[in-house]
Amino acid sequence: MSVLKICAAAASIVMALSISAQGLTYLKDTKTDITLSASAAILIEADTGTVLYAKNEKEHRSIASTTKIMTALLTIEAGDLDKRFTVDPIAINVEGTSMGLKEGDTVTRRALCAGMLLPSGNDAANAAAISVAGSSSAFAEMMNNKAAALGMSDSRFVTPSGLDADGQYSCAYDLAVLARCALKNDVFREICGSVKLTEEYGSPPYKRTLVNSNKLLYSYDGCIGVKTGFTDNAGRTLVSAAERDGVTLIAVTLNAPDDWKDHTKLLDYGFEKVRPTDAAYDCSSLRVPVIGGEQEYIGVKTTSSAALPLTAEQKEQVQVTVYLPKFIYAGVTAGETVGELRYELYGSEICSVPLLASESCAAKPQELSVIAKCVKFLRSIFNF
Questions:
Q1: Are 279 and 306 in contact (CB under 8 A)?
Q2: pLDDT per residue over 15-73, tens digit each?
Q3: Mean pLDDT in each 10-residue stretch from start to end of the chain (384 residues)?
């Protein structure tokens, strides 16, 4: 692993290991010869955004209910997840899969997210859109704005449910970008990774069990989501994610008659290709000058090393940059954050680890000036 050391005058302090949300990066040897039933597909490592496999990944296609990844994410980000309200009667009057909403039902946005991500309720997606934006068209605008913010340049949303509509499309690449973002949201991650959830809604509300249509959750070791989909026009669509030993993979297939098998092949390949790599950095020689302290320098340390999910090709491409201030003022306590290590891959930051003071440094007692000494002497004599 190549290492680059740079000292900076100031550092952006990160209190814990964090992964950046940069765009996807292709390996030089991105796999393209895995036999799949899908018309389009992609496999990425989620933390680094590395593309491990690609097939027609930028091709515009209908994506069916995988659209609900965007709908659920925006609903969660809107907040007020547990506030009860009455569903819009027109919104829930929709064809296809349903969570069983009826006119007059009261529900929460959290329950709607469960209803759209587990049984893929079109009624849930529509009701959430009205709740968040006031109309389906206004919500579609929110969807497209979010897509643009994420760099999903090959997507256009029209409906919150993913039912076929003129001018609506996306691609495998953009769905991988979307899923990567959505999985960083703890609420989304918890819901989409649940085999079953019990939610209370109705008129009056009562408890019901919602079952996830993603059978990979119980058939593939480490699966954590994400979303199934189907329409006659789109065919079978699927976005899946799985975690093992600190490696997170996201797979997308569009128009895949044998999608379960396709995803098993993709994920198995990914876990063979990517391994957690210890990126420990030796900080023993690092020092920071101290102004006004009892010692001139203090050492720094890290409490955790970065375990980076890398391919063999990437291991020698990682660069580590040390960010420390030119100096610090005395009064530093051991364990206080004073800088950071930044790990970069192909010019993009993928991880940062805080650098901590390895020792305390108290301020040096200041000598009194001649005048101050005279004042102190006079006070002691005249008791004032």
A1: yes
A2: 223 333 347 888 877 777 789 999 999 999 999 899 999 999 999 999 999 999 999 99
A3: 38 30 71 89 94 96 98 97 96 95 97 98 97 96 97 96 95 98 97 97 96 97 97 97 96 98 97 88 89 88 82 86 91 90 84 89 72 63 63
Other CB atoms within a 10 A radius of the CB of residue 149 amount to 9
Give dist(CA 246, CA 180) in Å, integer. 15
Q: Which residues are catalytic?
A: 65, 68, 120
CATH of span 32-273: 3.40.710.10
* Domain 1-23+275-384 CATH superfamily: D-Ala-D-Ala carboxypeptidase, C-terminal domain (2.60.410.10)
- Which tokens sit at 156? 């256009």
Three-class secondary structure assignment of the chain: CCCCCCCCCCCCCCCCCECCCCCCEEEEEEECCCCCCCCEEEEEECCCCEEEEEECCCCCECCHHHHHHHHHHHHHHHCCCCCCEECCCCCCCCCCCCCCCCCCCEECHHHHHHHHHCCCCHHHHHHHHHHHHCCHHHHHHHHHHHHHHCCCCCCECCCCCCCCCCCCEECHHHHHHHHHHHCCCHHHHHHHCCCEEEEEEECCEEEEEEECCCCHHHHCCCEEEEEEEEECCCEEEEEEEEEECCEEEEEEEECCCCHHHHHHHHHHHHHHHCEEEECCCCCCCCEEEEECECCCEEEEECCCCCEEEECCCCHHHEEEEEECCCCEECCECCCCEEEEEEEEECCEEEEEEEEEECCCECECCCCCCHHHHHHHHHHHHHCC
Q: Where are the domains of the chain?
A: 1-23+275-384, 32-273
